[in-house]
Design goal:
Strand content: 15-25%
Helix content: 40-55%
Number of domains: 3
Bound molecules: adenosine-5'-diphosphate, magnesium ion
Radius of gyration: 30 Å
Shape: elongated
Length: 478
């Protein structure tokens, strides 16, 4: 009998504000320990938190992107989540509990079976804790409070994912979205975007199984590996007659296994209550409308527009909207070309991405800008060069040899489109390849390609392939 996997994901996205959520201390990554921890962050007596407007605006931007104005609470409340840990000097974390800033919304993902919607439960604002440092200390731990008070948006999904692949597709879509709308830098190595995966298994159609939560996954590969291991482990445990206990587990990338951190029995009772130091957060319709006006066109809207108006495939449209940089490059390119959407899309997703990948470069570091690439594609559209020759020109451009037109001129790559000249060449090819001609006339289609190949060879690759095809067909039909 089959098992079905059920996954819900909680994500912490660090909001890209310059200062912290309740203090003026800097949030920049990598500073020496405790130089970016002010009196509020280290919880000196008598200090009071002051809410950072930039964090609120970013949360609203997120709400608008996943659900529109309806999902944004006009009134939300900050609550104290009480627990003891050395990196939490206040003894509580300021979070949102009963009334989060965003309730509902959805993320759309592409799966093998097409588009799928993952519903969001909520997204709330909270502060990060500090860090315990174990490495440089013998028999002791150090405490770095630079991260204490860094603004986070915790985004909680419904248990809507059914495989590790879907979970990764969701995490990637969410990652792309928070970067797209400019609320989080998405740097996973620095911990700016991290996921907890809640995993359970069940018989198809049965009620939800008991879940285990895999904490703090900071790469898509670890997310995939951790879920795959966890699912196998849960199925084996159940098939052996065991049962699953609700628990929090950690993934060890070295062993590829998950191991128990704590069970439900030691789960904290956080004694949430509204923080008396902070007023309820009231957001007006005008504020929401103003932020909505400033939002860029969202990836999904762009994707749909590319499919509808540019006749791109769902796949190409998806790749071209994987980040704003890629979409901007594509749009600049087709603008400079004045059309040629499909040609532009296939060159970006093919040759251009291939070259970037081989060189290990980001699109912003590309030696070929969108205008230069437009210059090359224009030569194809004008039938000056074939698509095949264009690849050589592209390589030359990549190596800094100049603009497409200049390279074509200097290397004499212009294709031969003169009908008279091509006919002369083809007559020669036909005379020299009587065997292929006979085979073709006897019904062997392949022989035609051989003749095209010979004609291309005779023009040293410069014959216009479409014209060669046409002339050959005409002559062979006689
Ligand atoms: P907590 O706050 O204790 O982590 P929540 O009820 O908020 O618990 O759920 C956290 C996450 O767990 C959500 O993303 C939710 O979709 C997911 N989840 C809940 N039940 C299950 C289940 N049976 N299997 C998989 N995921 C689940
Ligand atoms: Mg949880």
């Amino acid at each position: 009998m089959d098992w079905e996997t059920v996954i819900g994901i909680e994500t912490h996205a660090q909001l890209s504000t310059v200062s912290k959520i309740f203090s003026g201390a800097a949030t920049q990554f990598g500073a020496p320990p405790n130089v970016q921890a002010c009196a509020v962050d280290i919880a000196l007596p008598g200090v009071l938190p002051v809410l950072n407007k930039g964090a609120v605006e970013r949360a609203i931007r997120f709400g608008l992107a996943v659900g529109g104005p309806e999902v944004i609470s006009r009134r939300s409340v900050f609550a104290r989540k009480n627990y003891f840990y050395p990196d939490l000097p206040k003894g509580y974390q300021i979070s949102q509990f009963e009334l989060p800033i965003v309730t509902g919304g959805a993320i759309s993902i592409l799966t093998q079976d097409g588009e799928k919607t993952v519903r969001l439960t909520r997204a709330h604002l909270e502060e990060d804790a500090g860090k315990s440092l174990h490495e440089d200390f013998h028999g002791m731990s150090g405490i770095d409070l630079n991260r204490a008070g860094t603004p986070l948006l915790e985004i909680v999904s419904e248990p809507d994912m059914r495989s590790a692949e879907e979970a990764v597709a969701y995490a990637k879509a969410l990652h792309a979205l928070v970067r797209w709308i400019g609320i989080c830098d998405g740097n996973m190595q620095e911990g700016s975007f991290r996921c907890d995966a809640n995993v359970s298994v069940r018989r198809p159609g049965a009620a939800l199984g008991t879940r285990r939560e895999i904490k703090n996954l900071n790469s898509f590969r670890f997310l995939q590996q951790a879920i795959e291991y966890e699912v196998r482990w849960q199925i084996e445990t159940l098939q052996d007659g065991g049962s699953i206990q609700q628990a929090t587990v950690l993934f060890d990338p070295d062993t590829g296994q998950t191991r128990m951190m704590r069970t439900k029995e030691d789960a904290h009772d956080y004694r949430y209550f509204p923080d008396p130091d902070l007023l309820p957060l009231v957001v007006s319709d005008e504020t929401i409308e103003q932020i909505r006006c400033e939002l860029p066109e969202l990836p999904q809207a762009k994707r749909e527009r590319y499919i509808r108006d540019h006749q791109l495939s769902a796949y190409d449209a998806g790749v071209l909207t994987s980040s704003r940089e890629v979409a901007d490059y594509y749009e600049d390119l087709v603008k400079a070309l004045g059309g040629g959407h499909k040609l532009a899309a296939s060159w970006i997703t093919g040759e251009f991405f291939g070259a970037l990948k081989r060189a290990g470069l980001e699109i912003s570091q590309s030696p070929i800008g969108s205008r230069q690439l437009a210059g090359l594609l224009q030569q194809i559209l004008d039938a000056v060069i074939s698509g095949k020759t264009a690849k050589d020109v592209f390589d030359a451009m990549w190596n800094g040899e100049g603009e497409a037109a200049a390279i074509i001129e200097a290397k004499g790559l212009k294709q031969i489109s003169d009908a008279g000249e091509l006919e002369r060449v083809i007559d020669g090819v036909l005379a020299a390849n009587q065997k292929s001609v006979e085979e073709y006339r006897a019904g062997k289609e392949k022989a035609f390609n051989a003749l095209v190949g010979q004609a291309m060879k005779a023009t040293r690759g410069k014959g216009n392939p479409a014209q060669i095809n046409e002339i050959l067909k005409k002559k062979l039909a006689r």
